C-alpha cells in the first residue's frame, strides 16, 4: 500500500497565499512516485487548490463538513459542495474541533457518513486528550473509533484514513513517542479488524508536531501508513522535504 503524506493548513493561507505556496511546492514534489500527497485548505481556499493542483497527482480536500447535504445551516458547508469542488479527502473530528465546538461522537459519525455518501475519503481523527499513559489512551481511542465509525454501513466505504493524533502532541514542541504511536496504531488496526466497517483500504497516519527531525521515524514505522502534518507543512519547502523522505532511511533529505 502506498503511504500517505498530507497536511491541513488549518486557518492559515489565503487563496493568494495558496497560489504561491502550490507554485513553490509542485516542482519540489514532481518526483515523488511512491506515496500519495494531499493538502486540506480552509473552505474558501479549496477552489484555488483545485485550480493549481488539477492534473498534478496531489489531492485536495477539506477540514470539516456538515452532516446534512443542504438546508438552513448558516455558515456550514456540505459534502456535495466539497465533492463538487473535487475534494478527495475530508477531515472529521480533529481535536481542535472536538474541544472548541464540543463535537460529539454522534456528530462525528454523521459527518463520516456524509463524506462516504459522496464518495470521498474521510480522515477520522482520534487521540487521547492528555498524556496520561497508554491504558487511558487506548480506552479514549476505542471509544472515539466505535462512536465515530458507527454510521458506516457495511460495504459503504472503500477507503478510510484514521489519523492518530493525541491532542497533547498537536501544536506543541514534541511529537508523541514512537513506541506509543506504534502501539496505538496496533490498537486501531486490531479494532478495525474486529469491529470496524468493511473497507478495501485503511491508512493509519500519525499527526502531532511532525517535522523534519522526527518524520522519518514515523514514516518508517511498522504499522503506520503516513503522516498528517500541521505547522511544519505551512512552509512548502518543508512539506516537500517530508514528501520526499526516503523510506528506510533516518536522515532528512534536502530537496530543491
Ligand atoms: P501540528 O498539527 O503538526 O501543528 O502539531 C498537527 C495536526 O493538528 O494535525
Shape: globular
Order of helices and strands: EHEHEHEHHEHEHEHEH
The proportion of residues in beta strands is 15-25%
Give the overall average pLDDT: 93
Major sheet, described briefly? 8 strands, parallel, barrel
Low-confidence stretches: 249-256
Distance between the termini: 27 Å
Give the structural class. alpha/beta
Helix content: 25-40%
Strand tally is 8
Number of continuous helical runs? 9
Radius of gyration: 17 Å
The set of bound ligands, ions and cofactors reads: 2-phosphoglycolic acid
Q: Strand arrangement, largest sheet?
A: 1-2-3-4-5-6-7-8
Describe the structure.
The chain is α/β, with parallel strands linked by helices. 37% of the residues lie in helices and 17% in strands. Strands 1-2-3-4-5-6-7-8 form an eight-stranded parallel beta barrel, surrounded by five helices. Helix 1 packs parallel to helix 2, helix 1 (15-28) packs parallel to helix 9 (236-244) and helix 6 packs parallel to helix 7. It is globular, with a radius of gyration of 17 Å. Bound molecules: 2-phosphoglycolic acid (PGA). 2-phosphoglycolic acid binds at residues 8, 165, 170-171, 207-210, 228-232.
